[in-house]
Amino acid sequence: ARRQGLADVIAISTRRSDTLEEARELNLGDAYTLDPAEAVRGADLVILATPVGAYEAVMKAIAPALEPGAILSDVGSVKRHVVKVVEPLVPEGVHFIPGHPLAGTEHSGPSAGFAELFANRWCVLTPGPQVDKAAVEKLAAFWRAMGSNVETMDADHHDMVLAITSHVPHLVAYNIVGTVADLEQATQSEVIKFSASGFRDFTRIAASDPVMWRDVFLTNRDAVLEMLGRFLEDLSVLQRAVRVGDGPALEELFTRTRAVRRSIIDAGQETAAPDFGRPHEAPPVPEVATFVREHGGGDDA
Ligand SMILES: NC(=O)c1ccc[n+]([C@@H]2O[C@H](COP(=O)([O-])OP(=O)(O)OC[C@H]3O[C@@H](n4cnc5c(N)ncnc54)[C@H](O)[C@@H]3O)[C@@H](O)[C@H]2O)c1
Ligand SMILES: O=C(O)C(=O)C[C@]1(C(=O)O)C=C[C@H](O)C=C1
Predict the structure, then answer these.
(1) How far is the CA of 166 from the centre of ligand 2 (A)?
(2) pTM, 2 dp
């Protein structure tokens, strides 16, 4: 935001003084404070960026200082819960527009950010039906100026799509790495030392912030359980194919999944190449998002 000149003043507030110092040393903002109310006073745009479990407390602290006409948004990985806890605390005249940039890494803290993080990535906004359209367009323009492609959808739909494309994959990674670590302990053998690079890719995801992900699973329970059920059904089918030696079924699936990987790379979503100043083509919405939109997440999905 700073590099693109999108704000006259960027005020940063953190919970701990060492985090604030880190942000100051990196020169990320113009004003730094441990008091969140002070940070938001007079702001045109306020973005919550803590783990979603902290939103209610942060909102209670900032609500009295939010100015009418301000846009209040966030970057949380779940949306229905955010609407539930934040909306009742939003003062009259403040435009509340939940958001979620689909970009991040396993690293946390101010130094984990980089200016190209949002370039060529999706940013999903989930405005409620009553929200001022001009405010939504203003926030969308902010994300576009950072290189993102913006899509609006409803909060429940967001949570269902992200449950299968982000939340369940993280659960799978946490689980496989946990199982390997347990095995290593139980057998006292050097399983991890000899792990192949496929497993190492899982360890990157499983190194993601424990508090952030705890909150994701506590607050998107229904959608995660729905998609986990579907995932486990498909895993059972695969288990059977392995057991009975059904080569064609295995090969057919692996061929389809390879095509998914290629389509993501072709859409430019694998590498976050900065592309400022040039108009960029929006990559297609991932196939699964279209699938869930058309079919919902129900029994026939
Ligand atoms: N990391 C990702 O890949 C990613 C991607 C998209 C969205 N998100 C969402 O963004 C949000 C922030 O994630 P991040 O990766 O930037 O994390 P981060 O750890 O880099 O930043 C979170 C900040 O919140 C502060 N914080 C934690 N608990 C707090 C509390 N109780 N009260 C006040 N401040 C508190 C931390 O000190 C830290 O400065 C989360 O809601 C997450 O779901 C993360
Ligand atoms: O690449 C990663 O490390 C991520 O996990 C990023 C990721 C994802 O699942 O894609 C994680 C959480 C989000 O809310 C958005 C992005």
Answers:
(1) 6
(2) 0.89
Sign of CA dihedral 21, 26, 29, 31: positive
| pLDDT digits 0-9 by tens, 186-222 | 887 888 887 888 899 999 999 999 999 999 999 999 9
Pairing assessment for the beta strands 95-96 and 11-13 based on DSSP bridges:
unpaired
Task: Indicate the pLDDT class of residue 299, thresholds 50, 70 and 90.
Answer: very low
Best residue among 18, 35, 50, 204 to mutate for probing ligand 1's pocket (most ligand atoms within 8 Å of CB) is 50
Q: ipTM > 0.85? A: yes
CB 126 within 8 A of CB 83: yes
Query: Does any ligand 1 atom lie closer than 6 A to the CB of residue 34?
Result: no
Between CA 95 and CA 118 the distance in angstroms is: 23
For a mutational test of ligand 2's pocket, the pick from 121, 143, 151, 208, i.e. the residue with the most ligand atoms closer than 8 A to its C-beta, is 208
Nearest to 274 by CA among 154, 73, 119: 119
